[in-house]
């Protein structure tokens, strides 16, 4: 029996190219992709995935100059908190192309606190300790996930606000024009910074979610 080639056919790659983020395209050769800023790469496996981490913002009165770090401190975290298996880098043999960055306060955070978290926060994605590849106020990174809108309960006719950082739609957070390439062994982290005193009513959890094409290179 003839062994099946590990390369994708040109037809498959051409069809897959329709779902690629900007900056990623098929070359027309089996199993090859062109990544802007990276060059031509060969892949034997590809899947759409996310890389996420949840950090607790504590204390509730966040001092000026506080930075909460993502993807680094993963000790004692569960899969509900993060899917990182090691600090600041992907497992050996894995690479990722980041095409969207989402900052999402957890759904049970008080509405007034969510507004403060978003309005006062400044996020940056950092590679190799000091290479800030994408940064800006938190509204620059709207969440494509979570709850949105308002609902009115029947208990004392109280109105409860339910919303997220952006409409829960992938279209609410445009894909990066030039994807961010996380090569094997490369370190990365996210910093959620507060430059002025930000006083929340309680400690709050915030996710940072990277939408990625997760790849495993040919060996």
Structure description:
The chain has helices at residues 10-16, 111-120, and strands at residues 24-26, 32-35, 39-57, 61-62, 66-70, 95-105, 121-127, 131-137, 150-152, 159-161, 180-182, 188-194, 198-199, 204-217. By secondary structure, it is mostly beta strands. The protein has a single domain, classed as Jelly Rolls. The strands form four sheets. Strands 1-2-3-14-6-11 form a six-stranded antiparallel sheet. A four-stranded antiparallel sheet has the order 5-12-7-8. The protein has a two-stranded antiparallel sheet with strand order 4-13. Strand 1 and strand 2 form a beta hairpin. The longest helix has 10 residues, at 111-120. The model is unreliable at 1-6 (pLDDT under 50).
Quick take:
The chain is mainly β and 219 residues long.
Features:
single chain, 219 residues, mainly beta, Jelly Rolls, six-stranded antiparallel beta sheet, four-stranded antiparallel beta sheet, 14 strands, 8% helix, elongated, disordered N terminus
- Tally of extended strands? 14
By CATH, the topology is: Jelly Rolls
**Contiguous helical run count:** 2
Give the low-pLDDT segments.
1-6
What average pLDDT do the residues reach?
81
Tell me about the biggest sheet?
6 strands, antiparallel
Order of the strands making up the biggest sheet: 1-2-3-14-6-11
Order of helices and strands: HEEEEEEHEEEEEEEE
Helix/strand/pairing category:
mainly beta
**Text of the CATH class:** Mainly Beta
Envelope shape: elongated
Oligomer: single chain
Task: Supply Rg.
Answer: 20 Å
> What is the total number of structural domains?
1
- The percent range for helix content is under 10%
Q: What CATH architecture label applies? A: Sandwich
Relative strand content: 35-45%
Q: Report how far apart the termini are.
A: 22 Å
